[in-house]
Each structure stands twice: as structure tokens, then as C-alpha cells.
Amino acid sequence: MPVPPRVWLDENYDRIIRDNKEFQEKMNYIINNPVKTNLVEAAKDYKWLYIFD
Q: Is residue 10 in a domain?
């Protein structure tokens, strides 16, 4: 039986957020990903982004 191709990489490392500035950078990255990939025009329109509820 053929093995299906892998979708995810083996990345098992944590990132420590050391201050509020770095936290905001990571949140902005997460919030803007759907916009950068053209899934939506505005982050607030992304159905699975809960912070705008």
C-alpha cells in the first residue's frame, strides 16, 4: 500500500515570548496571515479568527 505524502514538517520547538512588544509582533503575524495569503481582504473577515468576536 503506498504511503501518502507528508503535509506537515517535523518542527517541535517552542518560542518564548519575552515581552509585550514581541507578543504584539507574533499576534500581528497571526492576525495578518489570512490577508497576506489572500483568503480575505481584511483580517476581521476571517471566519476562524476569534479575536474580533
A: no
- Structural domain for 33, as ranges: 20-52
The angle at the Cα of 13, spanning 23 to 48, to the nearest 5 degrees, equals 55
- Is 39 domain-assigned? yes
Residue 29 to residue 36: CA distance in whole angstroms: 10
The DSSP secondary structure of the chain, one letter per residue, reads -PPPPP-S----------SHHHHHHHHHHHHHHHHHTTS-SSGGG-TT-GGG-
Tens place of pLDDT per residue across the chain (53 aa) = 787 777 777 777 788 999 999 999 999 999 999 999 999 999 999 988 877 66
What predicted TM-score, i.e. pTM, was given to this entire model?
Answer: 0.64
